[in-house]
Every structure is written in structure tokens, then in C-alpha cells.
Amino acid sequence: MIFLAPMQGYTDFFFRNAYSRHFSGIDKSIAPFIPSGLGEQIKHRRIQDLWKENNEAMPVDPQVLGKSAREISPIANYLYDYGYDTLNINMGCPIASIRKKIRGAGILAYPEMVEMLLEKLFNDLPNKISLKIRLGNESADEIKELLPVFNQFPLKELIIHPRIGTQMYDGTVNLETFAWCVKNAKAPIVYSGDIFDLDSFNRLKNRFPTIEHWMLGRGVLFSPFLPEIIKRQETDWVENELARFWLFHAELVNQICTHRERPNNQLNKLKEYWRYFSQAFENSESYFYQLSRASDIENFIKLTDEIREKATWRAGLKPKQKFAFIKSL
Length: 329
Ligand SMILES: Cc1cc2nc3c(=O)[nH]c(=O)nc-3n(C[C@H](O)[C@H](O)[C@H](O)COP(=O)(O)O)c2cc1C
Prior knowledge:
By secondary structure, the chain is of the alpha/beta class. The chain has two domains: about 1-230, TIM Barrel (Alpha-Beta Barrel), CATH 3.20.20; about 240-310. The chain contains 13 helices and ten strands.
């Protein structure tokens, strides 16, 4: 099964819908996290990304970010009553300000807190629970203490991005420690990290033959064809089907313009997507530079039309730039 990774600011419902209309290959997605908070009333608008009418095309599990059952339970109950039976808890967000507050990957440094949290959630909530984790906050050794804690609970899935919190997205994934997790975890594992082309997927699949679930994130933004490439185990058909990328793009533009009111917001959002999309083309830097200077949507669309006319597609690329923008989330 292929999961679409949650990517705050990218894989919202309008992306998921535009994607489903023009591509297949994704079986299920986890929505970007909803922050949980203490003592506030939950407004329906807060879960707009999860409204049923916004999610007819692709199955989705909600994700929340929080450090205690007091924070998480109200939104968990709300989502359950609304119709979501599974809740994913974010224990992997690497943003420093979030980790400092013992949320995201920050909580991984405190196995006894994780244990208390899971005990409360499993006792109090009707939701099935899955976790999205890294190997630790500051050290991959942290997982050695955490996994016995996770193993005490009937987790629906344990999604592992095998980096540590302080690493952000730098360096490489730690496959030795991930192998230890595969050997020792009781819950079904979902692998997440650095699958950008058919080769990287097949290498991982060969190394971890027991893993049945794979999560794709940035790879889908670099090439939305990737899930289908993996399922078909072939790449050479993509060249002939590039028109689908442009239909998807037109729909995404449309969705962004419908759901974001301010023209500046719309333009900035599109520029952020093109940070990724541009890398599927030769001369990606030059295209991204031109697009990043677009002054309005009309100008932006004109530039993407030019790219469609003259750019050469290249499949499956490693990310080049630092993802500094996620530090500002
Ligand atoms: C811009 C961005 C936003 C992300 N937002 C989330 C999020 O909301 N929740 C989460 O659990 N992981 C989030 N992630 C992590 C991804 O889900 C994924 O685990 C990570 O990018 C590694 O997979 P990849 O190499 O396939 O992208 C985010 C990653 C990026 C790059």
C-alpha cells in the first residue's frame, strides 16, 4: 500500500483532490497536522481540511500534534464523532520551536511522557491510534527506549521516518536503526523517507521485504507520477503522459485560487509548490528563479505555459535546496 505523506502547506485537501483526479497510485493519505490546544472550543472550520465533502476522492486519516492527553483528547473525540475512526499522532515534526515545547519529535526524548500519553489515549479514546515518529529527538539511540513503550500498545500503524529531530531533512536516513525497528516492533511499520524514484524504492523494498506499506512525500511533489511508476515498475511511459501533469497543475491553480482569498497568498502558495515541481525539469533553478519573481498570478501562469512549451522533463530527482521555508511554519 502506498501512503501520501502529510506535508503541512502542501498536501491539503485541494492538493489531494486535484491529485486524485489526474493520478492514481496513492491508496491512502495522512492529513497535515492539526495543532491541539488546551481549553478552547473546537470550531468546525478548524477541521476544514478533513470535511467529508472535501475528501471524497482519497481516503485520509487525520493527524494531530500535541504532548498530552488533555490537549489531544478533545480534538480526537471531535474527529471520531465526525466520522474518523483513526487518529495519527505527530511525534516527528522537527521544527525547533515545536520540539522545544515537547511536541513533535521533541516528545521522543521523554519515553515516560510518551508512555503516559499513550496509556491515557488508549484508555480514554474510542479512536484507533497510529503514530508518525522519527528515531529520536537528538539521538537515534532514543528509539531503543521508545520501541518497548510503543510495543505495549495496539497501535494501528507505526510510521517511521528514520532521521532524528535535530537533523531536520539533512543527511541521510538511518537504515541500520530502521532495520532494528523492523525486527523489534510489534505494530505494522510504514516506511517514510527519501523515496524519490523507482530505484530508491526498489532498493528499500529489497532490503526490507517484510514492509508492506510505504509513504511518499517530497517524491510525489518532485514527480506526481511516482506512485504509479512504483506500482507499474516502469518509468518510460511518463514521457507520453506529461499532459496529465499540466491538467493536474491547472486544477491545482484553480483550487488554490478558489480556497485562498488574497491574490498574494495564492501566488506565494504556487511559488512554494514550484520549488518542488520545477525540479522535474531540466534547468530547474532557472525556471524556479523566473517563477519566484512573478509579480501576479497571470504572469505566473504565463511563465508555467512557457515551461510547458519548452522544458524537458527529467524523472526522479534528489532534492537540492535546503528546505528552509519549513522552519518558518
Ligand atoms: C514541507 C513539509 C511539511 C511536512 N509536514 C508534516 C506534517 O504535517 N506531519 C508529519 O507527520 N510530517 C510532515 N512532514 C514529514 C513528511 O511527512 C515525511 O515524513 C518526510 O518528508 C520524509 O519523507 P519524504 O522524504 O518522502 O518527503 C513534512 C515534510 C515536509 C518536507
